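Sample intake sheet
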Amino acid sequence: MYKVLSILVLGLVLTACAHTDNSSGEQEQILDQLDPNRENKIQNTSNLDNKLGYVNYTRDQLNIDSEEHHAVSIDKVQLADMIAKIILRNEGFNRVATLVTDEEVLIAYEHDEDLDQNIAADIANKTAASIMPGFYHVYVTDNETLIPDIQSLHNSSTQNNNYENTLDQIISQMKKSPQGTKNSKDQDMAD
């Protein structure tokens, strides 16, 4: 009888321990899911389009000293690529060249005759404006002869003496084309 009672008590103790380990494991799993660095640990990236972006930091988790000197940077090539591809998904666009600088987006495109010039400009302008930070100035043109000029800047450096002059000349030529409808923010800046 003593052996049976001992085995029964031992079984209850092991069951209780397993239950305690399981609940602490669940707590660790929940904390892991809320960890902002968890996204860096995820190996399966096949379903990223369906994921939401979320982080949750406390002030104590943030290294204030390193954050004071942290500079935010953007991948200009990736943004230019994204803008051009989205514009090309619209009916009537055949070719799109896009250049992203520190403050401007230059878009030159070729479109079908069926696509109204003002509508084409509006699509190109609004596409770039929806992707880029608000301080960027967007310039568009259907003047296909400016595509090589824009392309010539892609290997330029902002340190180059002629860079600003060339950029300003291209922008002044682009402004001769319809720029699309401006939103109220752009009109306020122009006034």
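Comment: Strands lie at 93-100, 104-111, 137-141. The first helix runs from residue 2 to 34.
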